[in-house]
Amino acid sequence: MSVLIRGGTVVNADQSIRADVSCVDGQIVEVGPDLEAPSGAEVVDADGQYVMPGGIDPHTHMQLPFMGTVASEDFYTGTAAGLAGGTTCIIDFVIPNPQQPLIEAFQQWREWSEKAVSDYAFHVAVTWWDETVHADMGTLVHEHGVNSFKHFMAYKGAIMADDEILVNSFTRAWELGAIPTVHAENGELVWQLQRKLMGMGITGPEGHPQSRPPEVEGEAANRAIRIAQALKTPIYIVHVSCKDSLESIIRARNEGQRVFGEVLTGHLLIDDSVYLDPDFEVAAAHVMSPPFRPKDHQEALWRGLQSGSLQTTATDHCCFYAEQKAMGKDDFTKIPNGTGGVENRMEVLWNSGVRTGRLTMNEFVRATSTSAAQIFNMYPRKGLVAPGSDADLVVWDPESSKTISAKTHHQNVDYNIFEGMTVTGTPSHTISQGNLVYKQGELQVERGAGRYLHRPPFAPYFDAITKMRAATPPVSVNR
Ligand code: DUC
Ligand code: ZN
Ligand code: ZN
Question: Is ligand 1 within 6 A of the CB of residue 71?
Answer without folding.
Answer: no
